[in-house]
């Protein structure tokens, strides 16, 4: 019997990990054993650490590239490793620049098509910025195409962070996405709070009596038609073009002033898309999980015990200059 997979798609900073954590909590409450595959564009694992705090399930991580191009050859082996642990459900969180339709094709490979069935493909949209991405990345055709395919390939579209967008902008989002996908369910959310039952109902713990061999048609989100092995899309050189991820390290016992860190990142705002990582704070000595998305900063106390670092993702960023300025900031840290 195939294991059901829920694919989480969406651009950088749209809220995929927040939704994943909610799904992991719900799975735990239902007694489900999850397998989790997390793909990140940067070399360091951030999202996997966040997810690991909320599950005892098996986690596989594909770092430093996109699973639908750079890391495509590693996808099948990672999924087979997860399946060996006999999960009740698979959660696949894609990098922010991944094409979910490419993943659907990969799951139709001979070694996977009888073992994995796509339950839902969920695409998260940043309500505040989704309409701006076409103009922002106009010169990067591959990335614009990928962002559109994230919408086209979804069964469920979640317009997230609605509390940060104006009513006028919210009114414009649905007509925009409906031009690309007229069939998917569309819901609005704040911090990824959506009804999880339509995603997980009908999935039972391994070994439970009378476990259904196929899920019933749900009254919520529409059923997805699985990819077929012969559905090949044109080859291309990747899902993104000019975006690059850099890891900024922190050595010694340095502690950083939060305002200086924010000021450092703002100097790169014309090219910066996303930043996240673990920063030791100077004011109270705590480890802080920093997130930057949509020109907004969020700091959260963390129990992360490892070496701190910051992953920065941007368009055509001068990595040498970025590292040099970060080192200057580090030299001034306490």
Output the keywords.
2 domains; Rossmann fold; 334 residues; alpha/beta; seven-stranded parallel beta sheet; globular; 28% helix
Overview of this protein structure:
It is a single chain. The chain has helices at 16-29, 47-52, 72-84, 100-106, 133-136, 141-152, 167-178, 197-200, 258-266, 319-332; strands spanning 3-10, 34-39, 58-62, 89-93, 116-126, 156-160, 185-188, 243-249, 272-280, 287-293, 296-302, 309-315. The chain is of the alpha/beta class and 334 residues long. The protein has a 7-stranded parallel beta sheet, sandwiched between helices. A 5-stranded antiparallel beta sheet has the order 8-12-9-10-11, with helices on one face. The longest helix is centred in the first third of the chain and has 14 residues, at 16-29.
Which helices and strands appear, and what pairs or packs with what?
Layout: E1 3-10, H1 16-29, E2 34-39, H2 47-52, E3 58-62, H3 72-84, E4 89-93, H4 100-106, E5 116-126, H5 133-136, H6 141-152, E6 156-160, H7 167-178, E7 185-188, H8 197-200, E8 243-249, H9 258-266, E9 272-280, E10 287-293, E11 296-302, E12 309-315, H10 319-332
Parallel strand pairs: 1-4, 1-5, 2-3, 2-4, 5-6, 6-7
Antiparallel strand pairs: 8-12, 9-10, 9-12, 10-11
């Amino acid at each position: 019997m195939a294991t059901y997979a829920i694919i989480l798609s969406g651009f950088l900073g749209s809220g995929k990990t927040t939704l994943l954590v909610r799904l992991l909590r719900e799975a735990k409450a239902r007694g489900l054993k999850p397998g989790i595959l997390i793909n990140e564009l940067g070399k360091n694992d951030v999202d996997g650490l966040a997810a690991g705090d909320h599950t005892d399930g098996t986690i596989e991580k594909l770092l430093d590239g996109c699973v639908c191009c750079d890391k495509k050859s590693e996808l099948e082996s990672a999924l087979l490793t997860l399946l060996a642990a006999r999960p009740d459900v698979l959660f696949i969180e894609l990098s922010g620049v991944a094409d979910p339709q490419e993943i659907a094709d990969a799951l139709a490979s001979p070694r996977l098509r009888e073992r994995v069935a796509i339950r839902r493909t969920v695409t998260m949209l940043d309500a505040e910025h989704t309409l701006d991405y076409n103009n922002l990345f106009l010169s990067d055709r591959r990335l614009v195409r990928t962002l559109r395919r994230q919408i086209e390939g979804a069964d469920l579209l979640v317009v997230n962070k609605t509390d940060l967008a104006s009513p006028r902008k919210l009114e414009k989002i649905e007509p925009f996405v409906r031009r690309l996908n007229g069939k998917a369910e569309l819901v609005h959310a704040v911090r990824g709070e959506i009804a999880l039952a339509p995603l997980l109902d009908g999935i039972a713990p391994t070994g439970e009596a009378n476990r259904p061999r196929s899920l019933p048609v749900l009254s919520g989100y529409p059923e997805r038609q699985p990819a077929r092995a012969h559905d090949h899309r044109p080859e291309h050189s990747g899902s993104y073009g000019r975006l690059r991820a850099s890891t900024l390290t922190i050595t010694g016992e340095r502690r950083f002033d939060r305002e200086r860190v924010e000021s450092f990142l703002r100097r790169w705002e014309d090219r910066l898309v996303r930043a996240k990582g673990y920063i030791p704070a100077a004011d109270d000595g705590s480890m802080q999980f920093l997130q930057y998305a949509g020109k907004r900063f969020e700091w959260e106390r963390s129990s992360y015990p490892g070496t701190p670092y910051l992953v920065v993702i941007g368009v055509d960023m001068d990595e040498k200059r970025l590292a040099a300025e970060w080192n200057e900031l580090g030299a001034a840290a306490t």
